[in-house]
Amino acid sequence: MNLSNTRATVGLSTKATPLSTNVLGGVQIGSNNEAFTLATANVAYSLQAFFSASGNILSLNHLTGSTSGSTAYGAGTAQVETATAVGTVTIAGNASIVVTAVGMTGSPKTIPVAVAASDTPTLWAAKVRTALAADTAVTALFTVSGTTTAIILTRKPATVLVSAGITHHIHSANDATLNIAIATGTATGITAAATSANTTAGVATTGVLIYDGDAKDFEGTTLPTMTGVTGELFKTVGAAFIVTGNVNDLFTIGANGAAQFVPGLAETTYTFAASAPGALQITVAGVA
Question: Cis bond leading into 108, ω under 30°?
Answer without folding.
Answer: yes
